[in-house]
Design brief:
By secondary structure, the protein is of the alpha/beta class. The protein has four helices and six strands.
Length: 139
């Protein structure tokens, strides 16, 4: 289903930076300079809020989750929250990237992320490589 069928166009593309990334000034700068709307975990949830509490909210608001926590796909409660709430999840395939490296990867990945957002029925997950490639992954 594409944008014409209700997926929403890019005007609805909002990136949610999870608790581990909402303090990364390089990611915030990249999104700001690209003109991409974003929300920060800290502006909606307390530190330490369980993933199973905030994942449904992100899904209901139709924001795109940006995380490095690929384990969400394997933790049964978190995976259920992703599936049941139609999350669009993008995660860095390597959790050991420096903030500047994540920002460079994100900058390259944004056009593909936006394309997946516009053209792919949620829920879905996609990894972002260090080089900025975006690869859809099985939930």
């Amino acid at each position: 289903m594409g944008a014409a069928e209700g997926q929403g166009g890019l005007e609805n593309f909002v990136v949610f930076l999870d608790e581990n990334h909402c303090h990364n000034p390089h990611l915030v700068k990249t999104l700001t300079e690209a003109g991409v709307a974003f929300e920060l975990h800290q502006n909606h949830f307390s530190a330490g809020t369980p993933d199973t509490d905030w994942l449904p909210v992100v899904g209901r608001k139709r924001w795109c989750l940006l995380t490095a926590d690929a384990r969400i796909r394997y933790n049964e409660l978190e995976r259920s929250a992703v599936l049941e709430n139609g999350l669009r999840m993008f995660y860095f395939s390597r959790n050991n990237l420096a903030g500047v490296e994540m920002a460079k990867a994100l900058e390259k990945a944004l056009p593909r992320m936006q394309k997946l957002f516009a053209e792919t029925q949620p829920p879905f997950a996609a990894s972002i490589t260090k080089s900025g490639e975006v690869n859809p992954r099985h939930l």
